[in-house]
Amino acid sequence: MRPSLIALLAVTAVTGCKPSSSKIRLGPFDADRYESTSTDGQKQFCYLFGGDTNVPARLCGDPNPTPDHAGVFFAAVEPIAGSEFVAKVGAPLDAGYYLLKPIGTERVDAWSLGKLGMKEWLAGKRLLAVDTDDKHTTRVRVIDPIARADRSFDVRTTTSEFLLVRAPEDIAVLLVQKNGGEELLLLENPVTNPLLTITSVSEGKSAGNRKLFASGSIDRLQNKVWQPPTGFFGHIGWSGSRPTYDNAPLGPFEEPRL
To answer: pTM of the entire structure?
Structure first.
């Protein structure tokens, strides 16, 4: 006996049908991309990695291949209300940042990095992340996506934002306090053997520190918070992995203390 139309509709309603998707190449992956629209017209893309495996990775948000195209750096967000992807494909991973890399030919490793503030790729090999909590502890992380290694340094600061100055070929980076310009964090050899040290230019321990501190003297005399202008960065140079200001050495840089 042929099943009735009503019975077929009932089965369809129970099992549901996956929404249509498109194949997209992201770094080393062939992923399925789904588009969802909320009731208020908001659109969102969600992705399925390793869909033919028993441990697929489902994420909504913005994916980008890593600089070497060996993986994917994914900025994941919460799914929109009424997402068809959630209903018919499955719940995605939590919001945050992820590094995805292949395991064999089909499976995917989704490494959660949590929430990130400032982030930059260094030499196309390491991800630099800088975050400061409400207790003014700044965490500098050097993340290796291939080795799945996360080297982190904590330092007590008086600021929550830094400006980044890069040495040639990223052999070092200097993090300059955005509001005040007094605290400097130096990260040397971030790709091979990262080391973080700190100096305060207000202490005037070197000619470079004194010159840099003097740059904001007018604002400080007027009880203003000095913010390094764009032209400020042209005064910073490098002697190997060590920074200078107007050709005078900055520092000395010391190990951070909590």
So the answer is: 0.86
